[in-house]
Design goal:
Elements (H helix, E strand, L loop, with lengths): L10 E5 L4 H12 L3 E6 L2 H11 L4 E4 L5 H9 L1 H5 L5 E4 L14 H29 L2 E6 L12 H21 L4 E8 L27 H12 L9 E4 L3
Parallel strand pairs: 1-2, 1-4, 2-3, 4-5, 5-6, 6-7
Helix pairs in contact: 1-7, 3-5, 5-6
The structure holds NADP nicotinamide-adenine-dinucleotide phosphate (NAP).
Length: about 240
Amino acid sequence: MSTARPLAGRLALVTGASRGIGAAVARRLALSGARVALLARNADALAALVAEIGEGAVALVCDVRDTGALSRALDSLPELLGGAPGIVVNNAGAFFVAPARDTSVDAFAATLAVNLTAPFAVVRALLPAMSASRLGHVVTIGSIADRMAFPGNAAYAASKYGLRALHEVLRAELKASGVRVSLVSPGPVDTDLWNSIDPDQQAGFTPRSEMLSPESVAEAVHWVVTSPAGVNVDELRLSRS
Ligand SMILES: NC(=O)c1ccc[n+]([C@@H]2O[C@H](COP(=O)([O-])OP(=O)(O)OC[C@H]3O[C@@H](n4cnc5c(N)ncnc54)[C@H](OP(=O)(O)O)[C@@H]3O)[C@@H](O)[C@H]2O)c1
């Protein structure tokens, strides 16, 4: 294993890789030698990133709310990638801010579908191969909102608190299995996720210039997955210095 390319020979899946944190994570893992599968809905953005990354990167165009489509996409991975992924970064996420009384049941359910049910479906599909090889790493992208309640966050906080619970159960189940599980929970990150809110113009939100960069979150994910084999980074919480 070369120090410069510590992930050479590893296969990785990054969900929500068409932009933002997921795209930065995909670039970072590929830079260290991993062959990455990029999953999201925006086919053009994925194709552009696959072309930019090279290194055998592949695209999986899929809406994770469609459990059938997600299952088919995950089934196609071994053939597309040349093997089952040993690193999974569950990153795809949906976010909006609205008081609970103004949040429709459908919007609440859709947020849970993307942020909670889909990561579970991904892990459920890919865990058997990881467990069989006794080599795998599931990285969950949480949020500051998986431990802190903010007004307007009913759907998002419910999904992220739940996602942290899923991570903790997986950690308990997979201890000493060879499969590592890590939660990376950033504070505000300057990505398109904030576009509909425009945090620079609204009181109570962190200005974009004071947010983390997607690349700094990607660096943290890279550190987690390249940590020594005997170490499980259980939880990493990121805020601006
Ligand atoms: N930005 C922040 O301040 C912040 C802070 C803490 C945690 N996070 C978490 O970090 C993760 C990434 O967020 P980001 O800031 O990079 O947001 P972003 O720029 O909005 O990117 C979200 C990604 O998720 C994908 N996605 C959303 N809905 C999807 C669906 N139904 N099916 C498939 N893919 C879907 C999007 O791709 P398509 O639109 O192409 O499908 C996109 O690639 C999320 O889990 C978010 O909760 C973000």
